[in-house]
Amino acid sequence: MAKTEKKTAQRAASTHEQAARVVAENRKARFRFEILDSIECGIVLVGSEVKSLRAGKLSLEEAYARVKEGEVWLVGADIAEYKQATIWNHLPKRPRKLLLKREEIRKFADKAHEKGLTLVPLSVYITGRGLVKVRLGLCRGKKLFDKRETLKKADAKRDMDRAMRRK
C-alpha cells in the first residue's frame, strides 16, 4: 500500500510542477525602464481570452497597470480575438483586473504613486496547472543616456563573444 501511495503522490507532484509556458514577454520594457521590483499576480479573463492566450495571441508592447479604487487593472494589453468564439468573443484591448492581495497592493502598487515609477507587465505565462499569471514590474523610466549606455554594453558583450568563438 505504501508503494502505491508514493507513486500517486509522485504523479500528482509531477503534474503540478510542470514548467510554466511563456505566452508573451515585454522585451522593450527592459530597455525602456529600470526594473526595481517585480511580483507575480493572477488575471481575470473570459474563456475566449484564455483560448487566444494559449494560441500565443498577445501583445504587451503598450500595456501598463493602474491602481483604481483599491484594485489593480491591466490597461492596453492586446489579446487578439479568438475566431472560433464568434458572437461570444471579447474586446481585444479591454481593461483586465489583476488579482493581488490587499497587502500586496498597498506595498507594491502604491509605490507607483511615487514620482517617476510605473507598473509595467514584464511577461504573461501559463503555469503547469493551467493558470494564467502576469509578472508585473515596478519600473522607473530610463533617460536617453542610460539607453545609450545599455546599447554600448550589449555591443561590447557581443564583440567579446564573437572574439571568444573565433579562438
Count of folded domains = 1
Strand/helix succession: HEHEHEEEEEHEEH
Helical proportion, percent range: 25-40%
Low-confidence stretches: 4-9
Radius of gyration: 20 Å
**The level-1 CATH class:** Mainly Beta
Q: Summarize the main sheet.
A: 7 strands, antiparallel
Shape: globular
Terminal residue distance? 59 Å
Mean pLDDT: 83
How many β-strand runs? Answer: 9
How much of the residues is beta strand, in percent? 25-35%
CATH architecture: Beta Barrel
Biggest β-sheet: strands ordered side by side in the sheet: 1-8-9-2-7-5-4
Instruction: State the fourth-level CATH superfamily.
Output: Small protein B
> By helix and strand content, what is the structural category?
alpha+beta
Count of alpha/pi helices: 5
Q: Could you please say which CATH topology applies here? A: Small Protein B, Chain: A
Account of the 3D structure:
There is one protein chain. This protein has 167 residues and is an alpha+beta fold. The protein has one domain: Small Protein B, Chain: A (Beta Barrel). It is built from five helices and nine strands. It has a seven-stranded antiparallel sheet. A two-stranded antiparallel ribbon has the order 3-6. The longest helix has 23 residues, at 144-166. The protein starts with a helix and ends with a helix.
